[in-house]
C-alpha cells in the first residue's frame, strides 16, 4: 500500500487556491464534505494524533477509545504493560468492538458473533466457524502507538512521519509537569458546532481574549504590541521572568516565551507541527484559577508555585496548559465538516484526593468557562461563514500571525503529494 496520497482532485485543488494571502479561508474550505474527506485522509490519517494520557489506562486490559472521522480506534494496555492501538473493528463482519469511552477488558469479545481477541490483538476464538479459518491472519489491525512523557500518540498512516522530534521536545518540556504521575481529575466532552479548522484558528490567536475571556486575561500575558509596548506591562513581565528564571533555570523549568503575543505556532516553513514553551503568569496568579490561588497540590517535580505555565501543542489535535498544581488539556477529533468533538482533561498529582486536596468546583471554572466561550465563538463563526454574505476578511499581521501560519500549514499538508 502506498503511503503517498493520490493527487488532490483538480476541483479541490482549485478550491484551496481561492484562499487570498493575508486573509481567512473561503467559505467552501469550512463546509465542503469532499474536502473534509481529503483532510481526514491527508491530515488526520497521515500524521500523529494525541489519543489520551497513559495514566488513563494504568493496568493490563485497561482501554480507551476515540473516533477520528468515521474511524474508531481502541487503545489498550497489553499483557506486557505496553500501550497498543488497534482499529476498533471486528475482522469478521466489521462490527465496532468496544463501544465505551474507556474501561477494562480480559479479552476483546465482539458483541455480534463473539469472535474473541487477546489483549495483544490476536484472534483467539471464532467458535462456529468450521471452515478452517486461519486465525493468525485475522488479528485486529494495528495502529501505530507511542508514549512520551505520559502522552499517548497514535498514527493511522501506514508509515507514520518521524516522531523523534516531538519525543525529544515533549520529553524535556513535560518532565517537570509529571503527566506520567498524574491523576485525571475530570474529563469533559464538548460538541463544537464548527469545522475543526475554526477551532484551531480560534486557539491560535488571543486577539479575541480581551472581549471574550475576561477572566483568562487576568492571569495571562497573552497581549500584543500595543499593550506590550507599555513600559509598565513590559517591566511587569520582565520581573516575573527574571524571578522565575533565576530560581529554576537549572531544573529545566526555564521560561522560554518572554514577550507579548502568542508563541509562533505552527511553523509551515520548517514543518514544525509540535511545540512546547513556558511563559509566566501575571503577578498574583500562582495558577490558572479564577482567583489565582492554587487549587491542588503541586504536580510533578515542581519545587514551588513559581513555575509560570507550560504550554504544549501538536497539530492537528492537542494542546495543554500546565500550571504548578494542575494541567488542562484538549483533544480534538473531527466529526463532520461542521462538527468537532473536544475532550477536555483536568490533571492533578496522582496522590491528590478529590474533596480533600482539591475541589472540582474551584478547579474547573477557569478553563471550562474559557472552553465554552471559545466553542460558542466557533459556533457563531461557522454560522457566519456558512452565509452567502461571508467574504474572508484581512488577518491582523500583529495579532493573527498564527492564524495565517495555521492556514499555510493546512494548505501545505493538503497539497503534499
Ligand atoms: S462481526 Fe464480529 S464476530 Fe461477527
Ligand atoms: Fe479563546
Determine the fraction of residues in helical runs and give it as a percent range: 25-40%
Distance between the termini: 15 Å
The proportion of strand residues reads 15-25%
Class from secondary-structure proportions: alpha+beta
What attributes characterize this protein structure?
417 residues; alpha+beta; 7-stranded antiparallel beta sheet; 6-stranded antiparallel beta sheet; 22% strand; globular; binds FE2/S2 (inorganic) cluster; binds fe (ii) ion
Describe the structure.
The chain is of the alpha+beta class and 417 residues long. Helix content is 26%, strand content 22%. The chain has helices at residues 10-16, 33-44, 164-174, 196-203, 209-212, 216-219, 225-228, 231-248, 360-363, 365-386, 401-415; strands at residues 49-53, 62-68, 71-77, 83-87, 102-104, 108-109, 116-117, 123-125, 142-148, 151-155, 182-192, 274-279, 309-314, 318-322, 327-334, 340-349. The strands form three sheets. Strands 1-10-9-4-3-2-5 form a seven-stranded antiparallel sheet. Strands 11-16-15-14-13-12 form a six-stranded antiparallel sheet, sandwiched between helices. A three-stranded antiparallel sheet has the order 6-7-8, with no helix packed on it. The mean pLDDT is 95. FE2/S2 (inorganic) cluster binds next to loops.
